[in-house]
Amino acid sequence: MRLTKQRILFMLILLGGLLFIAACSSDNPDTSDVDNESSEKDDEEVENPEEGSSEEPVTLPEEVLHKSNTGDMVTALQHILIEIGYPIEVTGTYDEETTWAITDFQLQHEALNATGIYESETKSEIEQILEGGNQVESGENLSKPANNQAEEKSELGNPYDVLALINKVNLLPADYYPEDLTVPNVRFSFDGDDPKKQLRKVAADALEELFAAADEAGLELFALSGFRSYDRQDAIFAANAQKHGEEHANTFSARPGESEHQSGLAMDVTSPAVNYDLVIEFGETAEGKWLAENASKFGFIIRFLEGKEDITQYQYEPWHIRYVGVEVAKEVMDQGITLEEYFANKE
Predict the structure, then answer these.
(1) Most buried residue, 49, 73, 169, 319, by CB count within 10 Å?
(2) The CA-based dihedral angle spanning residues 92, 98, 101, 103, taken in that order and rounded to the nearest 10 degrees
């Protein structure tokens, strides 16, 4: 009996030890499955290290862009301009800095017209810079314009800008002489060679299209006065001031530096109906009415509108057309506003 009790006691102790071991094992479960899952996740992260953090590459816009445009396309263009070396801010607005950068870039490439407008030809040249991994020397041909907003009168830092606002407070430099002047193939009211037959190429091409459309409409438009140098404008204003007094003269004649004619983007037109003169009555002729209705289709505006004399500070001139490009011209003419109002509305 005593032996049996000892055997039973031994078996109880053995059983207790086994239960203790089993209990310890349950407190430390097999972690192989967890380790395997963790390993699989690590492998996935290694295979896709950039997943969730990559950014879409910035590409050049396909659209034509110009001063006062806003949006993602302008933002993309500004990023690219910074990439190729222009110290501008990314604002999402095609501002003076962006216009300067585009103009300076165009001036550095002979194949481009220096207009300040981003278009397909400029896009192609920028693409070549990007493909070569190169940068440009910013300001090489046109210094970055200073902010002169606080000044009563200021000289334009970028006279090449097709959308430059030229008036009595925004002056062209005395030495500005457009490099791309050409004589458009249109009718003139006088014979012989004369600098005033000239326009900048972009405006000359557009004027030829405008005259062709007027011809198809059975009208007789004649070009009378385009480009005038600073010195020529100085002489004209001096003569008018001597005859009419400086204050009155400045209601119909610009002081030197304040004339759009010096930009090479403006042309005075007339017709036989007013004996080839520049008179307000031109606005009532068939040619004058057609011009007011159709000039914007070719990128021109009637620069000095009737009823807007307090804004332009010049008299109504139905004969004076200024090239600004089709998009801006349509907006200006459809709304019946001045170029001053157009830019004020964009601020």
Answers:
(1) 319
(2) 130
**Number of neighbouring beta carbons within 10 Å of residue 233:** 20
Whole-number pLDDT of residue 249: 97
Which pair of structure tokens corresponds to residue 171?
A: 């002056």
- Residue-wise pLDDT for 130-154, tens only, equals 998 888 999 999 999 887 655 678 9
pLDDT of residue 39: 45
The answer as to whether 292 is a domain residue is yes
With a CB cutoff of 8 Å and minimum separation 6, the contacts of 159 are: 172, 173, 176, 263
Q: Which residue segment(s) compose the domain that 75 sits in?
A: 59-145
pLDDT at 17 over 90: no
Exposure b/e, 251-272, CB count within 10 A at least 16 = b: eebbbbbbbbbbbbbbbbbbbe
- Residue 272 and residue 222 in one domain: yes
Q: For residue 12, what pLDDT is reported?
A: 61
User: Same domain for 160 and 134?
Assistant: no
Digit-coded pLDDT (tens) for 258-270: 999 999 999 999 9
CA distance 112 to 137: 17
Instruction: Give per-residue pLDDT as tens, 201-246.
Output: 999 999 999 999 999 999 999 999 999 999 999 999 999 999 999 9
For residue 81, count other CB atoms closer than 10 A to its CB: 24
Question: What span, in angstroms and rounded, lies between the C-alpha atoms of 218 and 264?
Answer: 27
d(CA 50, CA 3): 75
According to DSSP, the β-strands at 170-171 and 154-155 are parallel
Looking at residue 41, what is its pLDDT? 44
Q: What is the pLDDT of residue 347?
A: 80
Q: 157-175: b or e for each residue (b if 16 or more CB lie within 10 Å)?
A: bbbbbbbbbbbeebbbeee
Q: For residue 189, what are the CA distances in angstroms to 52, 96, 274?
A: 68, 38, 12
End-to-end Cα distance, the chain: 111
φ, ψ (nearest 5 deg) of residue 53: -120, -5
Residue 184 and residue 309 share a domain? yes
Q: 286 and 273 in contact (C-beta within 8 Å)?
A: yes
> What is the bridge-based pairing of β-strands 317-323 and 266-270?
antiparallel
